[in-house]
Specification:
Blueprint (H helix, E strand, L loop, with lengths): L5 H9 L1 H15 L6 H14 L3 H13 L4 H9 L2 H4 L1 H19 L1
Helix pairs in contact: 1-2, 3-4, 3-5, 4-7, 5-7
């Protein structure tokens, strides 16, 4: 994955025990069921889109690509949210994901 955002790095440095617990919780949640990492990242990207989190969409788009998702799968995971998220929210998230896809190729 690309370098983590500065606020995330700062949090990790300043609150290392909380960060470790957060990472452990994420690992436990990931291993609690049958979904593969690509599917988990696409779902988390959609959740980030629903939350209006640009950094979350970008982060999980990169992670989904690293887990084997194609650019088309990343985009489709957001497009199918059009009725749930609303057109403008989906379009914003799609734009963030497309920037992440372009950056990922570099």
């Amino acid at each position: 994955m690309r370098e983590l955002p500065k606020p995330y790095q700062q949090f990790r440095s300043e609150y290392s025990s909380v960060y470790a617990a957060y990472e452990a919780l994420g690992a436990q949640a990931a291993s609690a069921g049958p979904l593969d990492s690509k599917t988990r990242e696409l779902i988390k990207m959609g959740m980030a889109a629903a939350n209006g989190s640009e950094s979350g969409v970008v982060s999980h788009a990169h992670r989904a690509l690293e887990a084997g998702a194609s650019a088309e799968e990343v985009q489709h995971a957001l497009i199918i949210g059009i009725n749930t998220l609303g057109f403008s929210t989906m379009m914003a998230a799609l734009g963030w994901a497309k920037k992440a896809i372009a950056a990922h190729k570099e």
